[in-house]
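tool_call predict_complex ligand=copper (II) ion
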Amino acid sequence: MYLPSLLRSLGRMGIRVLALASPLFLTGCDFFNAIWRMDGHQSTIVVAGPVARAQRDLFYVTCWVTLVIFIIVGAVLAYATIKFKARNAADEHAEPPEQGHGNPLVEISLIAASVFALVIIAIPTLKAIWYTYDVPEAEKANAYEVTATAYQWWFKFEYPGEPIENVGPLSTSNELVIPAGRPVHINLRTVDVIHSFWVPKLAGKVDMIPNRGNRLWLQADAPGYFWGQCAEYCGDSHAVMRFRVIALGKDDFNAWLAAQKATARTVTATAAAGQPRAQFAALKEWKRNEPGYTDKYDRPDLSPLDNWKQMQAPNPNEDAALIAQGRKLFQEKTCIGCHTIRGHEGVGITGPNLTHVGARTTIAAGLLENNPEQLARWIRHPDQVKPGNKMYNGGYIDVKTRKPNFTLTDADVTALVAYISSLK
Ligand code: HEC
Ligand SMILES: [Cu+2]
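tool_result ok
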């Protein structure tokens, strides 16, 4: 397939030239790099799965056809402008030449050329629509099924093929773990407004519509860590309604499923080896809207996937007493009413399932890095991190009177953070 790959690399070059011509590239080296390599976290050009690849190739076909049209029209325009321009005063005041009714040959050729261009675009477009619509027939038996449900401003992921006795399907939040190299069929649902499910490197966006089931399929070529985003304006915190997709090899995936099906970890004093350590040095006071850390992932020493794998292991220096205190506070401060911690006291379903939240790389729907500092920041001031969020409005404060429902001291936050981090 020489021609498509040539077209592809030429296409990439064309976009780079356009990007370089843009004055924006002067604003920063990172930005320049991202554009030059075109491999940002949410790139639709450097892709990692067959569905996104089909969509990208279609984009290139359209680019090329329209580029050819642009060049022809531009050339004719330039030719006419130069050839027929007024060259002296006499030309300028000359009568216009005799006006005709056009040239049937030219007109018919133009119509034929347009139809031809549209057909060239239509054939791969229709093929791509059929291909991306559903898992190919031959692969259906091998497809893995997941249900993604959107809430203002986070995602719930359920695994209908992994039932837990007396509970229902395995359920997790904000980080979707899938098997690599297998098609994944995702049912798209929403409990409130219209959201849209988008993992740019794996597949184009598809809306999640109230009272109407929708779906998409995607596949990751290889194990990896991918950035996702709600792509439909859905209220206050739409821009920070994010998620992650982690694709794992077969064994890793099965190990993950087994760990997720287990009930929440209970840390006892004997289980916690080593020295209890302070969970974090001091509570930092974050400024309102101070940015989180997950926009960029800049750890050259550790790939995002390896970072995710490290998060699965319990911290060797846990403070069992502090964790027990946190578990008690989780009940007293009403957290249990909104969050499920299967095996512990949490039974709520209006917030993300936290049974294994300590093993996730992010919190607050992909917005903050999951570390003690950011957890403390979130638990203290969810309103300052995500405007409008329903943990604060209706949980921390009474929405009608705007009065706080409870208070959290620094010591409370420290204990809650220790407890939540222990939920591996
Ligand atoms: C009124 C319901 C409600 C209460 C009460 C509540 N939460 Fe939440 N919680 C939520 C919702 C909703 C979210 C998702 C917010 C978002 O990302 O928009 C959330 C998110 C979280 C997250 C991040 C989870 C993730 O996967 O991103 C943590 C951790 C958390 N809550 C801890 C707590 C703690 C600790 C308490 C008690 C002090 C608490 N919550 C009380 C509703 C609640
Ligand atoms: Cu949304």
